[in-house]
Amino acid sequence: MLDHQREGQVPRRSGDQPPAAYVIEGTFPDVKLRTDAPVSAHFAVAFAKALKAAVQAHNGSLRSIAKEAGVTHPTVTRILDGQTLPDLRSISGLEVALRTRLYPTELYQQFSETHSGSNEPPGEAEQSR
């Protein structure tokens, strides 16, 4: 059984680092990721960008949004900073609290096997070669 060190932290069986560990340029979530960043890091960037925009459009504080979502303020901050992958509880709670879709539902299409098994979106893979 895997231990959860802190609420909102997702255990990593694959050895993946937190999404921010793969940043080569910018400040999370407005970043460029390393070419070896796992798919989960790309999803975390897209989710954090959507979350950041929704929080800015919302009239409440980050603490009040977290409370309404049923997650802690530090959990939301770690997601926005790329220090953790959001779990389903956090994703669903934040979507309901902010009344908007945050999860990047179409991003999977950019990671199909037709892109040489790369873990990065096709445009980025071609630029880094």
UniProtKB/TrEMBL annotation:
Region described as Disordered: 1-21
GO molecular function, one term: DNA binding
InterPro entries xref list: Cro/C1-type_HTH, Lambda_DNA-bd_dom_sf
The HTH cro/C1-type domain, residue ranges: 51-107
Sequence ranges of Basic and acidic residues compositional bias: 1-15
Protein name per the record: HTH cro/C1-type domain-containing protein
Organism per entry: Lentzea flaviverrucosa
Lineage: Bacteria, Bacillati, Actinomycetota, Actinomycetes, Pseudonocardiales
